[in-house]
Amino acid sequence: MAAITSPSTLAISAQHVNKIFNLKTENEVVALENVNLTIKPGEFISLIGPSGCGKSTLLRLIADLITPTSGDLKINGKEPHQARLDRDYGMVFQAATLYQWRSVSKNVQLPLEIMGYNREERQKRAQEMLDMVELGAFGKHYPWQLSGGMQQRVSIARALAFNPSLLLMDEPFGALDEFTRERMNMELLRIWDETQVTVIFVTHSIAEAVFLSSRIVVMSPRPGRITAIVNNDLPYPRNNDTRELPQYFEKVTEVRELLRDAHEVD
Ligand SMILES: Nc1ncnc2c1ncn2[C@@H]1O[C@H](COP(=O)(O)OP(=O)(O)OP(=O)(O)O)[C@@H](O)[C@H]1O
């Protein structure tokens, strides 16, 4: 089931969003302070910043895994809870979180099973998704028979199986070697282009953020704030040649300096 969104609706609208953990206790942590961010459908947004600046917290607020302490947050114009019920997003984490005792195809089918698709529909859709991530021949394999990069591709196939309008990714390639990571970056851009999904991507890597994103959200810690939003007009489609462009290096330097400034404020 596709998440139906009118083209004019923002994918994400965050206005004055605050998140304080352990409010009014001695362990109080201001994880996010006055976050204002709007994301249009089809954008590729990276969240970047040092450890503890609230990147995962922002993603978890969007996914309705936690709720804001104050402020207004809408997903496709809806409350996060409603967006969750409507399955507006799929999620991919750093660890592939696949069920080792289920075949690759059965892992991709899992959300469809929960949503009540019949067996034939599930199998057809899982095969389409596995073809998309170039694992069409691996449906009968088990996750433990696949490399880390292949397992993450299965996670992406599963997250997109029910055609969500948003894909939330929390350091999905952080555990992969540099070479696999660069290949996965290119695969992800191809999938983004094919599906037109809106991506929100958490990363520690400046190079990854610049290669992938149409905009980069720079954050600083204690309290977690957005300190800059960088437009990235490097042309798509991007490929290995993109990484050699002078504009690519300029953008990497720009983001690095913004991160350094954000840290110095701390
Ligand atoms: N459930 C929680 N209870 C208390 N504090 C929390 C909780 N979750 C996160 N925090 C705190 O909120 C702040 C932001 O954490 P968050 O995990 O969002 O940062 P991050 O930028 O994703 O970090 P990293 O890059 O290390 O994953 C941190 O200070 C963290 O300790």
UniProtKB/TrEMBL annotation:
Domain ABC transporter per the UniProt entry, residue ranges: 12-246
Keywords annotated in UniProt: ATP-binding, Nucleotide-binding, Transport
Key word Disulfide bond present: no
GO MF, any single term: ATP binding
Keyword Transport: yes
Stored InterPro entries: AAA+_ATPase, ABC_transporter-like_ATP-bd, ABC_transporter-like_CS, ABC_transporter_ATP-bind, P-loop_NTPase
Pfam families associated with the record: ABC_tran
Protein origin, superkingdom: Bacteria
Gene3D superfamilies in alphabetical order: P-loop containing nucleotide triphosphate hydrolases (3.40.50.300)
SUPFAM superfamilies registered for this protein in UniProt: P-loop containing nucleoside triphosphate hydrolases
Listed name of the protein: ABC transporter ATP-binding protein
Organism expressing this protein natively: Phototrophicus methaneseepsis
